[in-house]
């Protein structure tokens, strides 16, 4: 489900990104890591995994000396004064799929982290090399921000560096300057009892190219009709359902030929059944076949064309995506 | 057409026409808060009416029913569209160019109109399409940050893709990503042909406007030239371009058509639409800050029903008796106008217009039908939008060849 350290390193090599790797015993903090690889030339990044009150998540990746004031950051994001908190251990595992102490921008390679926003300290850019965990705490890799950017772009992210220590005023005439970093979608997590259901549907969705753990989770939420006692969660579940839930069950089928054919046949059958009635048989007699055939064409043409276009675009995208991953070229 | 220079000079007479309606890419307002006079606009701009003979010709050439926007006169003006059809008949293809300024996240139905029509043109004529997202323009005019405007461009791209464009013949690009290379070389060629005075005359710039704005017009002009896209049209410098757009974009392309022959390029042809009215009526302004002035693609069925019932300006009479007596004023009735855009069935529309105009049908019925039509449209869009992934956006926006663009 989540990427492994080996898979990440292989991907970095594929993308021809230069990096050095250092193994060390498992560490949970920057201080602990320094004991083993303090000699390495490069700046250790500290990484924070944060969430806001609307279940949106953020990774802040900064130089260890950069002062990150959560209150200021919260305001700059437009979340008000106390809008940001550290995310819980569970969400770390669910969303970033990395162990404790291992928050890293590389976790964004996981589909489950698709809606997590990334803020990078501009201070990282001035460093020759920066050190991050590659999805596991028993190793650190050193690369420059050029390499990090290349990686981020390969997973469809736009690398954006900000001055994390800045404290610009935020008010009526000064909109929050980091508002664009707020994710457009919240991530809803199921209650612990639903984890089994999630695991099952997740396995089913393993095969499809467009599978997305966040929407798998949303599907689990949708399937579980239990009303949550927490009003916030219920509203968020509804939001996610409206945004993605309605289409979740069909998200698997956009380039799946069986589903496509089923949908075409379903729609056609529905029309045939509605058009062949006692009245219409009486009215058209022998000609009913021709009449129904005509009506099917008239009523379904546009809709089926739309379906087919979605199918075509999805299939093309899958091929294109696979092709671009294989060749480490940029566009 | 030698009268292009005249048309451009016309702009300098704007000073005399302050009482008149104003139509340019950044402002559209009717005279005295009334309705836009399209005949006057066609006269002033110097474009042609798209008459029924052209619509019939389209039907013959494409072998299919012309799009509802053509049948209802939504796309009502053009420049050189007949020449495009002449060339097409001879076997010479063309490509389509349209675009959007990504200034807000939410798209409403008015925004979709040019894209719906462009999709039809792409399918009917089997031609490639380039879609420009002018994130730089919005960054400058709306004072958005570069990151925000780029983000909006990507978000808007998803809704645009959901209109059903064919990925094997569509290239979407954002200025911040694509400007450079051959595109930029064409921009400079165009810029050299437009004096400061002229651009001020066409677009109404003032001494207080920053230089970004003043040098922007070539960015929107050069997608009309195939050499701006060497990965798409290598060696096809004579490929003609057809631009479907709303008529307020005409000034950009008048300028482009004036410059084209001077730099050895073909003039782009245009096919232009009237403005999509706000829910509250022709005189109302559709604005992003008033969510009730338009139907958004993110509106739920409940929202749509609510908006249509409460805010759609009705041309019906104030009482049922009066309504049965005098009938509805179809000139100002918004539900009927919206049905004109989105109700496919010509016969049904005619029936509604006749019955409602005579007072035999009530506003409630018309609004109910409109709600159905709009809900179906928005639902279809939402389903298509759900299928658009970030990878799909990347693929549409990738600089890649389109080998099957004419098939």
Automatic annotation (TrEMBL), chain A:
Gene3D superfamilies attached to this UniProt entry: YbaK/aminoacyl-tRNA synthetase-associated domain
InterPro entries in the cross-refs: ProX/PRXD1 (IPR040285), YbaK/aa-tRNA-synt-asso_dom_sf (IPR036754), YbaK/aa-tRNA-synth-assoc-dom (IPR007214)
Pfam family, one: tRNA_edit
A GO molecular function held by the record: aminoacyl-tRNA deacylase activity
Residues of the YbaK/aminoacyl-tRNA synthetase-associated domain: 24-150
Top-level lineage group: Eukaryota
Family membership: Belongs to the PRORSD1 family.
PANTHER family tied to this protein: PROLYL-TRNA SYNTHETASE ASSOCIATED DOMAIN-CONTAINING PROTEIN 1-RELATED, YBAK DOMAIN-CONTAINING PROTEIN
Protein name, per record: YbaK/aminoacyl-tRNA synthetase-associated domain-containing protein
Automatic annotation (TrEMBL), chain B:
Major location (coarse): cytoplasm
InterPro entries: aa-tRNA-synth_I_CS, aa-tRNA-synth_Ic, Rossmann-like_a/b/a_fold, Trp-tRNA-ligase
Coiled coil: none
Taxonomic superkingdom: Eukaryota
EC number: 6.1.1.2
Key words, A-Z: Aminoacyl-tRNA synthetase, ATP-binding, Cytoplasm, Ligase, Nucleotide-binding, Protein biosynthesis
Entry annotated with the keyword Aminoacyl-tRNA synthetase: yes
Class of the enzyme per the UniProt entry, highest EC level: ligase
Record CDD domains: TrpRS_core (cd00806)
Gene3D superfamilies documented for this protein: HUPs, Tyrosyl-Transfer RNA Synthetase
Compositional bias annotation for Basic and acidic residues: 1-15
Region (Disordered): 1-25
Compartments where found: Cytoplasm
Example of a GO cellular component annotation carried by this entry: cytoplasm
Claim: Ligase is one of the keywords in the record: yes
One biological process term in Gene Ontology: tryptophanyl-tRNA aminoacylation
Pfam assignment, any one: tRNA-synt_1b
GO molecular function: ATP binding; tryptophan-tRNA ligase activity
Protein family (similarity comment): Belongs to the class-I aminoacyl-tRNA synthetase family.
Protein's name according to its UniProt entry: Tryptophan--tRNA ligase, cytoplasmic
Organism: Carnegiea gigantea
